[in-house]
Design brief:
This protein is 36% helix and 19% strand. It has 538 residues and is an alpha/beta fold. The longest helix has 19 residues, at 393-411. It is elongated and about 90 Å long.
Length: 538
């Protein structure tokens, strides 16, 4: 029997644990099945998937549907079914945590969808399929029979999570990717309406000793970066402490990406974080909103002031990158309040401030409560919010544009971060003004080079905030952009009185506080300055 897995990801760097996690559980009980995988990204031509699948002639085609690859997956599957009419198609993943009848009726080329955690049930389903037994009575299976009747067997859940074979034993584990994922805990203590893990109880975890053994194996396979899948990472201080000390033992070998709830950080955990090696961690601080009313309306545990206090303490550790996220479209969250929260997080000096639109996901309480909350959302993936009482469509559009602005001038625009922060914190109306300026010219609808972003910021300051022009010029010259373009034209050649730097040619940029002297190595092509002084060179 042949099973073909369609592995479609958003980009090469991304990978799914679903394939190796399910395959690992079949190694002992389903040896008669041959697994084939066709991999690619959203940029991969449809013909690639179709051609490879037809070559294999599978009995079953399986895949996991994800928000941003779901539509591509359907395009592939509809073509495969036309060519391989006898092939059985089964899908799983977070897309199917809600009511699946309408989905199956709208996509007749999909035979079955699976709701829940599949590691225990999927091997049984494969065995029943091979033996031609009735397989529609297994937990989590949703299907429409030959009499056009819908059958739904509820939600499958793995209770003995600790007994599962780890995905790393599968030959399909993505060791070659830039980073890999390791799921240390399943479930969550929180009841966030917007999250597929909200209310997922009981919480099930692997022991620290078990995790240690897996990390050692990953190191031997050359893995450098690990994203820890654990939404409860810092809710049990004793376990958190043990995990952080475990990670410390892999310093210099592994970097860990973890998610913490900043409002629940304890003094003990902060003390440990203060003493960890630099670069060991990358921390995602789950903020979502700094408005308590929004948090309560979204079912999220945690006080906003405690969240801010926690983020500030994380920043003071000064030992890892910190990324915080906000979600536009949550109940009672207005665009003006979002801008205030953005400014507050920027003032702390975080490495990234991510602003995303709410996705009203199948199976979440947010979807169940959407009508009573007045939330309207797109009926197709990625199910983004379209309107709320607090944020009509024009406000949500503005939030999307603000997200792109943050990516361009703060998150990914490292060259322009310093003047952007100075303007945002120094001028109360700047963020609004700059956003409107960019939106009016539809500049955020297209990719912008780093140089173009600098020119736009300089031009805007020239018109509206001239007192900040020199900050943009400093950033421009420091980044190594042309002195012939507007931001660099204010810098003029400077003759040293003494030849302290005989191989360096200086340019002087006057500022209200005296100025900057930028030195360029005469022996190299002029790009970034090799010396930056705030006092005239001798």
């Amino acid at each position: 029997m042949i099973l073909l897995w369609l592995d479609i990801t958003s980009s090469y760097a991304h990978s799914s644990l679903a394939l190796p996690a399910l395959h690992a559980q079949t190694l002992q009980s389903n040896k008669e099945w041959q697994w084939h995988v066709v991999s690619g990204t959203l940029e991969t031509p449809l013909s690639h998937y179709v051609e490879k699948a037809v070559e294999v002639q599978p009995d079953v085609v399986a895949a996991t549907a994800w928000l941003f690859t779901h539509n591509r997956l359907l395009e592939v599957l509809s073509r495969l079914k036309a060519l391989l009419s006898n092939t059985y198609t089964i899908l799983g993943g977070p897309e199917f945590l809600g009511d699946n009848e309408d989905y199956l009726r709208a996509h007749p080329y999909i035979n079955t969808v699976f709701r829940g955690e599949g590691e225990e049930v999927f091997p049984k389903w494969l065995r029943h399929f091979k033996e031609r037994k009735i397989r529609d009575n297994l937990q989590g299976i949703c299907t429409i029979d030959t009499q056009n009747l819908y059958h739904d067997k509820g939600m499958a859940k793995v209770i003995r999570f600790d007994l599962l074979l780890p995905p790393e034993v599968s030959s399909f584990f993505p060791y070659s990717k830039p980073f890999v994922q390791i799921e240390t805990t399943r479930g969550c203590f929180n009841d966030c309406y917007f999250c597929i893990s909200g209310g997922d109880k009981p919480i099930r975890s692997h022991s620290v000793e078990h995790i240690k053994g897996r990390l050692q194996q990953l190191v031997t396979r050359g893995v450098k970066e690990i994203r820890v899948l654990d939404r409860t990472f810092n809710t049990n201080p004793k376990r958190t402490s043990a995990l952080l000390h475990l990670f410390e033992g892999f310093s210099g070998l592994l970097c860990f990406h973890i998610e913490v709830h900043p409002a629940l950080l304890t003094d003990e955990i902060i003390d440990i974080l203060h003493n960890l090696p630099i670069g060991l961690l990358h921390i995602e601080a789950g903020v979502q909103s700094l408005d308590n009313n929004v948090l309560v309306s979204s079912g999220r545990v945690g006080n906003s002031q405690k969240a801010i206090d926690g983020v500030v303490l994380l920043k003071k550790c000064n030992r890892f990158e910190i990324h915080a996220d906000l979600i536009a479209g949550l109940p009672n969250y207005s665009i003006q309040r979002i801008k205030e929260d953005v400014k507050r997080l920027i003032s702390i000096g975080l490495d990234e401030v991510q602003l995303e639109l709410l996705k009203v996901l199948p199976g979440t309480l947010m979807r169940q409560k959407s009508a009573s909350l007045g939330i309207q959302y797109a009926p197709t993936p990625p199910y983004e919010v379209l309107s709320t009482p607090a944020m009509p469509p024009h406000a949500l559009h503005q939030a999307q544009q603000l997200s792109r602005l943050l990516d361009g001038w703060y998150n990914k625009g490292a060259a322009w971060r310093e003047p952007f922060v100075q303007l945002t914190l120094g001028e109360p109306s700047f963020l609004d003004d700059f956003l409107q300026y960019l939106m009016q010219q539809y500049l955020l609808e297209k990719p912008l080079s780093a140089e173009r972003r600098g020119l736009l910021l300089y031009d805007f300051c020239r018109k509206r905030y001239p007192d900040y022009l020199h900050q943009v010029s400093v950033a421009w010259i420091t980044a190594g952009y042309s002195l012939r373009k507007a931001p660099g034209q204010c810098a003029t050649p400077y003759q040293q009185r003494q030849h302290t730097y005989p191989t360096v040619r200086f340019y002087h940029l006057p500022t209200p506080s005296g100025g900057y002297w930028f030195g360029f190595d005469r022996g190299k092509e002029r790009r970034a300055p090799c010396i930056i002084l705030q006092k005239a060179p001798e």
